[in-house]
Design brief:
By secondary structure, the protein is of the alpha/beta class. It is built from five helices and seven strands; from the N terminus they run E-H-E-H-E-H-E-E-E-H-E-H. The protein has a single domain, classed as 3-Layer(aba) Sandwich (Rossmann fold). It starts with a strand and ends with a helix.
Length: 188
């Protein structure tokens, strides 16, 4: 299988990157291909709600000319994806949020007929690092992720929230094991 990982942290060597790397290592060890995208390095404009993407055939079709369409095509070509983000105000980091807002182009809703889900059936995972607890803190990002996965027609196959790691490299002793278990959940 091929997975695209979307790393949404501005710290390329921080907690989110470290935990994601363990999950990626596990996927590779199992023989899967991993394509990491550091979203912070991409140019992603904000969705302006024009909905012209709905009239485009054969691809995402967002008229904004930036890296979002390239990223979407890479996800379409994969078997699954992982959204990895530090928790910012109960949600995704700004660069990742901008990309997710643009994902409306991945579901085509023609005037007549059924919706077309460009990511239909793909595996989707959520990896979050948080300075506080999971409960009452990361519950909102988990709900947003669940609704996004449902909207996109994907299968939610993995969820890992690593709580209480506010400072860089403040990871608990079992986090690597949890990251590797998360990777296994992505393929089972």
């Amino acid at each position: 299988m091929k997975f695209v990982t979307l790393m949404g942290s501005p710290r390329k060597e921080g907690n989110t990157a470290t935990v994601l790397a363990w999950a990626e290592e596990e996927l590779r060890a199992q023989g899967h291909e991993v394509d990491r995208i550091d979203v912070i390095d991409c140019t992603i404009g904000y969705c302006d709600g024009c909905f012209r993407c709905q009239d485009a055939d054969g691809g995402p079709g967002c008229p904004l000319e930036d890296d979002a369409n390239v990223i979407f095509r890479r996800i379409v070509e994969a078997d699954g994806f992982i959204l990895a983000s530090p928790l910012y105000c109960w949600g995704f980091s700004a660069p990742l949020k901008a990309l997710l807002d643009r994902s409306v182009c991945l579901v085509k809703r023609p005037a007549s007929g059924d919706p077309v889900y460009m990511l239909g059936g793909k595996r989707a995972g959520l990896l979050v690092t948080a300075g506080g607890p999971d409960e009452g803190n990361a519950d909102l990002i988990t709900e947003v992720f669940s609704r996004l996965v449902e909207y996109l027609g994907c299968e939610r196959t993995g969820r890992l929230v690593v709580p209480y790691c506010r400072l860089q490299m403040e990871l608990g002793p079992n986090v690597e094991v949890q990251a590797r278990d998360f990777a296994q959940d992505m393929v089972e």
